[in-house]
């Protein structure tokens, strides 16, 4: 039986800081610098293109650090970083630009536009990152809301239920009567109801993927209300540009920007293609990671995982110098595989 051409992997991350991935400009309205939203649900997201560039840079940083170590097994004259990151200009006298070689883990994983024998699309593809759980302030402390559409991102189906305008939560044993009172989500008050199929439909799908302090503080809303509550509770900050000549606030330089709040849980998918089914030009792929040949989708995902530590410390998106962007990967697992073949990590 031939090897499968690809494998998909769930990656779930939690914002350690607010995250701002902007739309590339300003608009008239209350917020000057808005963040990217899904065009249908209007829920904020992080585009896959943002992940592709960040993952490439951070994986190259890791390999360059490994190459620079004394007695490193990596034999390579040109550096991984910054040469094999960036826009991939044509190399000049072996300096700068993607190398485009079949033995380069960065170029074969993320692709390149120019190189020996033309371009290569790469072995890894990234989906957009969507909100799975969103933190909202209440009088009882923060809770993390979700919706049927959000739960489908982790193959969790909510069937045969009309959510209406209620907040559904997990039934509690020995629940006191005052816990059944209405609860505010930001500035809106909701009537609470128990969702009796919580264990079957929700808990078994996400409880092993999220931090312990979030598990018992989840609320379920309809898709319509989920989008509305998320957009009403984004973090909004105001900053001012500094005039370099005076060192003080510039004239008419006040601006506001929005961000996903800290502890937002995001989920995205990485599709890793089988290297055995591809060639770089007319050459077989010979790149290695951890001294192992990249000859399977799992090996491709190992290259991807090297970026996760850097993602936690260096972040993604804009406003990094204003305390934004850090994203911790809390779970990564292969999709639709047996438990014996799955890869899971929990770094919380």
UniProtKB/TrEMBL annotation:
Nucleus found in the keyword field: no
Q: Which residues form the CRISPR type III-associated protein domain?
A: 16-328
Q: Which UniProt keywords apply?
A: Antiviral defense
Share an example GO biological-process annotation for this protein.
defense response to virus
Against InterPro entries, the record matches this protein to:
CRISPR-assoc_RAMP_Cmr4 (IPR013410), RAMP_III_fam (IPR005537)
- Taxonomically, the superkingdom here is Bacteria
Name the chain's protein: Type III-B CRISPR module RAMP protein Cmr4
Give the organism, scientific name. Answer: Methylacidiphilum caldifontis
């Amino acid at each position: 039986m031939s090897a499968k051409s690809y494998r998909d992997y769930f990656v779930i991350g939690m914002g350690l800081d607010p995250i701002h991935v902007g739309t590339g400009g300003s608009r008239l309205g209350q917020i000057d610098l808005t963040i990217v939203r899904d065009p249908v649900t209007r829920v904020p997201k992080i585009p896959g293109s943002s992940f592709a560039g960040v993952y490439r840079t951070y994986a190259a940083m890791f390999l360059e650090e490994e190459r620079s170590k004394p007695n490193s097994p990596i034999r390579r004259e040109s550096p991984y970083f910054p040469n094999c990151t960036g826009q991939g200009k044509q190399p000049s006298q072996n300096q700068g630009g993607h190398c485009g070689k079949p033995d380069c883990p960065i170029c074969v994983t993320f692709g390149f536009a120019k190189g020996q024998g033309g371009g290569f699309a790469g072995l890894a593809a990234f989906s957009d990152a969507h909100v799975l759980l969103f933190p909202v302030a209440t009088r009882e402390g923060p809770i993390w809301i979700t919706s049927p559409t959000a739960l489908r991102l982790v193959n969790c189906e909510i069937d045969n239920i009309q959510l209406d305008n209620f907040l559904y939560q997990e039934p509690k044993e020995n629940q006191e009567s005052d816990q059944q009172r209405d609860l505010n989500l930001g500035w809106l008050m909701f009537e609470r109801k128990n969702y009796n199929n919580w264990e079957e439909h929700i808990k078994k799908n996400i409880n092993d993927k999220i931090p312990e302090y979030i598990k018992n503080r989840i609320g379920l809303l309809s898709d319509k209300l989920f989008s509305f509550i998320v957009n009403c509770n984004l973090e909004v900050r105001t900053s001012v540009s500094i005039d370099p000549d005076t060192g003080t606030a510039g004239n008419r330089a006040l601006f506001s920007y929005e961000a996903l709040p800290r502890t937002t849980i995001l989920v995205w998918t990485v599709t890793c293609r089988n290297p055995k089914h591809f060639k770089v030009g007319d050459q077989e792929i010979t790149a290695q990671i951890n001294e192992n040949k990249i000859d399977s989708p799992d090996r491709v995902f190992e290259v991807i995982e090297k970026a996760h530590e850097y993602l936690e410390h260096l972040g993604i998106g804009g406003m990094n110098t204003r305390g934004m962007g850090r994203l911790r990967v809390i779970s990564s697992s292969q999709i639709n595989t047996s438990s014996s073949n799955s890869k899971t990590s929990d770094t919380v």
